[in-house]
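Hey, resending since the last one bounced:
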Amino acid sequence: TDAARVLAFARGAPAEVVVVATRPGPRATVAADAVVALPAGRWTDLVTGDAVVGTLELGGRVLPLAVLERDR
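The structure tokens again:
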């Protein structure tokens, strides 16, 4: 499953930073509809600058990672 290829880590209580990465390997891609549920709130992906709310879509990402910071 795609869950076996994704690592996510939240820092803080409540979370202020979330890092999400897909596992490298010969089958490093995840399904186009793969998502990671995020803690409530609005987030900014520090890698792409995109705003994220609710879930982070993993399919079709150019880079295999996201560094999300909670908007204040």
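The chain is about 0% helix and 55% strand.

Sorry for the duplicate.
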